[in-house]
Amino acid sequence: MAVIDVALAGRSYEVRVGTGLLDRIHAEAHGFLEPFGKRAVPIVADAEARRLHGERLQASFRSAGHAIDWYEVTPGECSKSWAELERLTDWLLERGVTRSDHVFALGGGVVGDLVGFACAILKRGCGFVQLPTTLLAQVDSSVGGKTAINANAGKNLIGAFHQPSLVLADTKCLATLPQREMRAGLAEVFKYGLLGDAGFFARVDEQSTAILACDVGVLEPVIAHCVGMKARIVAEDERETKDARALLNLGHTFGHALEAETGFSDKLLHGEAVALGMVLAARFSARRELVALADAEAVADALARAGLPTEIAALGLDCDGTTLARHMRNDKKAEASTVPFILLRAIGEAFVARDVDLADVAAFMDEQLQAH
Prior knowledge:
The protein is α/β, with parallel strands linked by helices and about 375 residues long. The chain has helices at about 25-30, 30-35, 45-65, 80-95, 110-120, 135-140, 180-195, 200-210, 215-235, 245, 250-260, 270-285, 295-305, 320-330, 360-370; strands at about 1-5, 15-20, 40-45, 70-75, 100-105, 125-130, 145-150, 155-160, 165-170, 340-345, 350-355. The chain folds into two domains: about 1-175, Rossmann fold, CATH 3.40.50; about 190-215 and about 250-370, Dehydroquinate synthase-like, alpha domain.
């Protein structure tokens, strides 16, 4: 098992990465269970995650004399809504959850975001433990304290910074994921190499087949490396007030626009949108002569080898570049009249560009919609 410390002033927490962690959660999370006494422990779970892993959790809790109170969430971005947030907070209040209690979140990024935000506002803040069951959540969304729901205007526009008290990333869960979900998570793994570690990018390219096959000997160190990178960035810039944490948004400004245009639906998973967004960021960087076009295409080639989408023309969108640029204007990272973009000077060297003209982005997107 790998243990990574997210070192924040006065409230550090651990991310544990290993196989079978859910089978011994009563021991791994012992300190957060004791306050419940005879009360049932609240677990908010993606319905599919509960079907796949609920019995393992139930057996572990039962062995320590704890009962579970389940709240099921419908899979998909539709659950990151005001309506679902209201239902969840009412459910938690009905069960008498206190500020000293911890709510457990079982599932992918949607459940983690929803539960984290609910816990941030419930009685002005209670604790929560992340039990990420997808690759994307294990390497990225479960760590760092960004929690949110979506709004009509865009993705993750309503939220709060609220750190978990513990993250248990059980690699055993990944063997149950469809390949499409694994690939979506792999996009975020590639992101860590692309933004700041060229050697890791090459390593992920070389090991992508083993990662997708859930080779535990490869998975654990890869996940731990990603979490370690994020932990260092979050410790330096927890609330994204400097450029350090902004680098984690590589691919996301372009990607969120594509997600918005596809209605935050299964037509385009978040990780697939990030993959496309990274390719677009690389190609836009080449268009601005920041990197060689060959380097930009090397990014696309690596993602394509892993089975990830690299051409937005293949989405068959009924829109133009101006429409996509308009989605970007609503991005939560927008500052006054500008939108910061994460661009590349090289593979493994990302930076924040604040001089990007959205009209130029719109023209570039028109080219990409018709390319290849």
